[in-house]
Amino acid sequence: MEQIVTEILQIVKNKMKEQGAYDRPSFHSYIEETIEELKSQGIITDDDNDELIEDKALSQWPEVEEWLSK
Question: Distance from the CA of 23 to the CA of which of 8, 38, 57, 61 falls in 20 to 30 A?
Fold first, then answer.
């Protein structure tokens, strides 16, 4: 699961930089959007606990916020 969370965070960071969206609501939206994209690609399956994955990714906001401020 950690690998999936890491992948989600990398995708989300790229989206935030590309879109110029640096706030927590955008972060949350991009997390949800990315999880749905990975589900449609079969990377996240019904066997994965997508709520837990989302919670773990969302808990990384302080680190992402710090990364964005650099």
Answer: 38
Distance CA 20, CA 27 (A): 11
pTM metric for this prediction:
0.91
Write the pLDDT tens digit of every residue in 30-65: 999 999 999 999 999 989 999 999 999 999 999 999
Q: Which long-range contacts (CB under 8 A, 24 or more apart) does 49-55 make?
A: 49/1, 52/1, 53/1, 53/4, 53/5, 53/8
Domain spans of the chain, in order of start = 2-68
Cβ atoms 44, 38 nearer than 8 A: yes
